[in-house]
């Protein structure tokens, strides 16, 4: 009986400890970009808090449209810990996303963050795909002012289905959410995954894989 209680309580206790660890134990840890000292917090060292300035918590430029002249017709302008060192340890970040008509933000995942997306201008078709074995597509068309959430780790995408440019703002639950763009990761890895592995995985001829690999 005691063993059973322990089996239930112990994971819950560990889980709560892990959750508590997400709350910073200091006001902030402004990432000391470029200084590789021995003590790192979330992969970055902290600036001496006495030298911290307002600009460490500041980013300017999200009013500017991103350049969408590229094969997918979209541009993500990220504001993560890389662009805004004050985000370090705070567990949040954001991005502006611009889309030309029929432009897509291709299928990708954020390994460390859920994403909540708000449409500022235009009309977006959005979707995410649930895990195996269901792989269900959850999709919706969004208009200006609409909000949609992409759960952490799941493959998701957006497409501008309107006649004019679209703009969205995304908020993410990590200062360093990470991005894995499916096509780039699978067909554009360095070095390349063997074409015969991908041919079997995707159930196509290796010629199709070679063509895909040449594009990434
Ligand atoms: C946008 O990107 C394209 C392709 O890289 C480039 O040719 C063009 O000059 C860029 N436009 C601006 C305004 O930066």
TrEMBL record:
Keywords: Apoplast, Disulfide bond, Glycoprotein, Manganese, Metal-binding, Secreted, Signal
Transmembrane segments: none
Entry annotated with the keyword Transmembrane helix: no
Cystine bridges: 29-46
CC per GO annotation: apoplast
Entries under PANTHER family matching the protein: GERMIN-LIKE PROTEIN SUBFAMILY 3 MEMBER 3
Stated role: May play a role in plant defense. Probably has no oxalate oxidase activity even if the active site is conserved.
Protein name in the entry: Germin-like protein
């Amino acid at each position: 009986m005691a063993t059973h209680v322990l089996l239930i309580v112990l994971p819950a206790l560990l889980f709560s400890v892990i959750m508590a660890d997400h709350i910073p134990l200091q006001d902030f840890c402004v990432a000391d970009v470029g200084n590789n000292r021995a003590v790192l917090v979330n992969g970055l060292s902290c600036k001496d808090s006495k030298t911290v300035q307002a600009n460490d918590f500041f980013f300017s430029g999200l009013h500017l449209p991103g350049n969408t002249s590229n094969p997918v017709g979209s541009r993500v302008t990220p504001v993560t810990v890389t662009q805004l060192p004050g985000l370090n340890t705070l567990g949040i970040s954001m991005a502006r996303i611009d889309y030309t008509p029929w432009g897509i933000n291709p299928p990708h995942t954020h390994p460390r963050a859920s994403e909540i997306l708000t449409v500022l201008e235009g009309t977006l078709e959005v979707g995410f795909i649930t895990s195996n074995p269901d792989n269900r597509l959850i999709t919706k068309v969004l208009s200006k002012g609409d909000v949609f959430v992409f759960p952490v780790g799941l493959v998701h995408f957006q497409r501008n289905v309107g006649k004019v440019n679209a703009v969205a703002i995304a908020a993410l639950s990590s200062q360093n959410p990470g991005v894995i763009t499916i096509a780039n990761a699978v067909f554009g890895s360095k070095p390349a995954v063997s074409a015969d592995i991908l041919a079997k995985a995707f159930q196509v001829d290796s010629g199709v894989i070679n063509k895909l690999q040449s594009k990434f």
